[in-house]
Amino acid sequence: xxxxRDTFEKTSEDELEELSVPDQVLGFLAANDDRxxxxxxxxxxxxxxxxxxxxxxxxxxxxxxxxxxxxxxxITDDTERLDGYSGYERATALFNQRLGTEDKESWxxxxxxxxxxxxxxx
Length: 122
Known about the structure:
CATH superfamily of the domain at 20-100: Winged helix-like DNA-binding domain superfamily/Winged helix DNA-binding domain
CATH architecture of the domain at 20-100: Orthogonal Bundle
Order of helices and strands: HHHHHEEHHH
Largest sheet: 2 strands, antiparallel
Strand content: 5-15%
Shape: globular
Helix content: 55-70%
CATH class of the domain at 20-100: Mainly Alpha
Structural class: mainly alpha
Mean pLDDT: 79
Number of strands: 2
Number of helices: 8
Radius of gyration: 15 Å
Distance between the termini: 34 Å
């Protein structure tokens, strides 16, 4: 996504490196690639507006990076497609830089089988 010249001039490098909404959504779905979520759940988990998340999901679907069934969304299992998306690589690198790399198998050993009771079912 492009930005106007004024924003380019007045914004710090750190601010410009922040992840876009689609990158944040894709990063969340990649970190939870064994589940599918409603847009509201994704928005709640990453702290963004549901409308922004819904728009991002539609754009990601247009690029075949996510799959949509009924009201649920999941990341594609097409790794070649994901590898070709520069935002995915950038999101992964920034998450790893901020939070450290993840040992997915170790995390899954301790993850609950079902969502927390506070997660609303619709």
